[in-house]
Amino acid sequence: MNQDQLKLVVQEKYGEIAKQSKLFSQSSCCGSTSSCGDVDYTMFSDDYSGQKGYNPEADLGLGCGLPTEFAGIEKGHHVLDLGSGAGNDCFVARAITGDEGRVTGLDFTDAMLEKARENAGKLAYANVEFVKGDIEDMPLPDEAFDVVISNCVLNLVPDKEKAFAQIFRVMKSGGHFCVSDVVITGDLPDPIRKDAEMYAGCVAGAIDKDKYLKMITEAGFENVAVHKLKKIVIPAEILENYLSKQEIDSFQNGETGIFSITVSGYRQI
Q1: In the prediction, which pLDDT does 22 show?
Q2: How many domains does the chain have?
Q3: Greatest C-alpha distance within the chain
Q4: Which residues of the chain have pLDDT under 50?
Q5: What is the DSSP string of 86-119?
Q6: Are 183 and 208 in contact (CB under 8 A)?
Q7: Running DSSP on this structure, what letter comes out for residue 203?
Q8: C-alpha 254: how far from its chain's center?
């Protein structure tokens, strides 16, 4: 598929997920409103329940880390969350920035934006907004944000170099980002790498860890640091949809690894 087709797949799938709860997504194993598909969209998720500002209605279990833990957000900061979904990370960030700060969520799925705005309305937050836009071409001004965060979204962006260039553009001098994402070591088997469902499920779009980190420094960021690296094991019942038993054994015991990574970087003054 070309880049536009990949984006459409992501929009459609996450539009479906936006219409249901985290519990339904987990119980249905794939977040499909029709029937259980091939991918568990919650298999990377971390527990947010202990985070200040956590709102269960905004948590669809779609993250792969806790970027707000390492983001260095302070009171009064203007924070941008890329791929903000139902608003989970935005509301946690808002609890840190307080009334003095601002939080902007960017997403390109209408159903997610509707859900996020509904959640924000219930919380009566005046300093949290949700904007429709593409991460590769953000409809946001230059040097507007102190901190940029994202949770398991950049792997869904076809052109990651454009994404990091845009993050650099909208970030204030002296600002920084912290993202949790999915990366790989080794090579994914072709049936997984070429599958649209696995792309939307944050697996097929993941790139090599070293290439990912190099891309960040080439975008102009400095003091790049990996805060957390956690290996992800794809359940055998999901792999069975793509690989033979022999291929599964080879994949599980080979050099290929899938990881959740939380990384930060700074735009120097």
Answers
A1: 54
A2: 1
A3: 57
A4: 23-37
A5: TSHHHHHHHHHHTTTSEEEEEES-HHHHHHHHHH
A6: yes
A7: S
A8: 27
pLDDT value of position 224: 98
- Which is nearest to 30 in space by CA: 18, 19, 43, 44? 43
The Cα–Cα gap between 190 and 172 comes to 40
Q: Which long-range contacts (CB under 8 A, 24 or more apart) does 240-245 make?
A: 241/38, 242/38, 242/189, 242/191, 242/192, 242/195, 242/198, 243/189, 243/191, 243/192
Neighbours of 108 (CB within 10 A): 17
Which residues form the domain of 125? 3-266
Q: Which long-range contacts (C-beta less than 8 Å, at least 24 apart) are formed by 92-98?
A: 92/48, 92/51, 92/52, 92/53, 92/54, 92/68, 93/53, 93/68, 93/147, 93/149, 94/53, 94/125, 94/127, 94/128, 95/51, 95/52, 95/53, 96/52, 96/53, 96/68, 97/73, 97/127
Q: Check which CATH number belongs to the domain holding 23 and give it.
A: 3.40.50.150
| pTM tops 0.85, yes or no | yes
Closest CA to 109 of 209, 217, 11, 232: 11
The per-residue pLDDT for range 147-178, each reduced to its tens digit, is 999 999 999 999 999 999 999 999 999 999 99
Cα(112)–Cα(209) distance, integer angstroms:
29
